[in-house]
Amino acid sequence: MTSTSSWLDEDLTFSNDAKTNKKTPFYEPIVNGFESGYKPHVSYHYNPAVSNYHYGVRHPMKPFRLMLTDHLVIAYKLYEKMDLYTPRRATREELLDFHSEDYIKFLETVTPDNVNKFSQVLKKFNIGDDCPIFDGMYDYCSLYAGGSIDASRKLINGMSDIAINWSGGLHHAKKYEPSGFCYVNDIVLGILNLLRVHPRILYIDIDLHHGDGVQEAFYLTDRVMTVSFHKYNGEFFPGTGNYDETGVGKGKHFALNVPLQDGIDDESYINLFKSVIEPVITTFKPTAIIQQCGADSLGCDRLGCFNLNIKAHGECVNFVRSFGLPMMVVGGGGYTPRNVSRLWCHETSIMTNVKLKTKLPDELPFRSFFGPDYSLHPNLGDRIDNKNTKKYLENLKNQLLENIRFMRGAPSVSMSEIPPDIQGITTEEEDAIISQLNRESELDDIESDKRYWINEKDNARDLELVD
Ligand SMILES: [Zn+2]
């Protein structure tokens, strides 16, 4: 024993004893007196096909981060704690619940080969470096959107209390156009579905960027409250999200924005998050919550500028979970794949109420990619100067609490305001949709069993695993 700290770190104990390692479980239950009564049913919605798409070699958005996340979740055996679903693709009709007909038609038709024919409309649809046209783009969109729609349905029919779709969370997409790597807004689609039975829905976004697409979609209504924590200086993408954006008309006071500066650290982020979210929940009284868990707010993100560690990000999600409300959990940004996957695996363990061993399981595929520390919790803080002074954060908090007071309690919803069934689908209709989709695409031809094995295809992609 060389230092006092080494015996305090339980993960170092027995680290050289292979036999003990083998017998030690990957996780242990969290014993928490306050929460012992809450045992939510958790579901995990993931279609492995969604990780096979490529935005382009130099593009920072790497769908294979979802494959890495899934490998971690499986290696830690978290599948023992959740229902696993392989969601079908969203249908065209489902995408049209939010998006315009001509935009969806464009996404369906355009390919890298015929893109020249569309030169007239590329600008109209905001196609360019951020949102390129790539092979299978429409399938990719319908897969991640299908995950969020599936998750919302499991919450509606009571099969889940917490439904997770790490492939979703693409919060920038607009009704008529893509934005910031997002083509279809799966969050809006999930919320529209939940609005069929839930009077009030709270959306919380902790991505580095402002959740502008979701805010815009529900800016005029008091049935969906949107809260976004993000970097803001008026120029940083997408340029919106100052504290004075609070909603319009009936939606006035039902949008809340938390503009932050570079380098915010764990403690100030968690404190601000809790002191804002607690009064939001007790005042607005949501009946369901959508939590967007964008991982670009972590320190060391390729496009990031905050100093958050995985545990701090997770603590925010844990705090939301502690209110015991039906919850949909989605991914979002995150451009350093090895940290994105560590974060989302850690947050999956929070949802299932277990504590994971810090040392990554030996059986983990692509384990070498997580070196040199091979830890679930590398230090990601202290890289960037914290520009958020105590005074700035204090003033911001007071301003936000003032905005929350303006809300004056939860709006009551009369039945006439609940929109008519948007896609009430019977089991037979659902089966018909599935067989139709299966005929249309081989992508759905995936047995979920295969996920427990490292398949050849994954191995062939080893070269991709660079930042
Ligand atoms: Zn982002």
TrEMBL record:
Histone deacetylase domain sequence ranges: 59-350
GO terms under biological process: epigenetic regulation of gene expression
Entry binding sites for a divalent metal cation: 207, 209, 296
Binding positions (substrate): 130, 180, 335
Residues making up the signal peptide according to the UniProt record: none
Protein localization: Nucleus
Catalysed transformations (reactions): N(6)-acetyl-L-lysyl-[histone] + H2O = L-lysyl-[histone] + acetate
Molecular function GO labels: histone deacetylase activity, hydrolytic mechanism; metal ion binding
Enzyme class: hydrolase
UniProt xrefs under InterPro entries: HDAC_I/II, HDACs, His_deacetylse_dom, His_deacetylse_dom_sf, Ureohydrolase_dom_sf
Active site (UniProt): 172
The EC number(s) this enzyme carries: 3.5.1.98
Membrane-spanning ranges: none
Principal subcellular localisation of the protein: nucleus
Cellular component GO terms held in the UniProt record: Rpd3L-Expanded complex; Set3 complex
A Pfam match: Hist_deacetyl
Annotated keywords: Chromatin regulator, Hydrolase, Metal-binding, Nucleus, Transcription, Transcription regulation
Origin: domain of life: Eukaryota
PANTHER family xref list: HISTONE DEACETYLASE 3, HISTONE DEACETYLASE HDAC1-RELATED
Family, similarity comment: Belongs to the histone deacetylase family. HD Type 1 subfamily.
Protein's name in the database: Histone deacetylase
Provenance organism: Candida boidinii
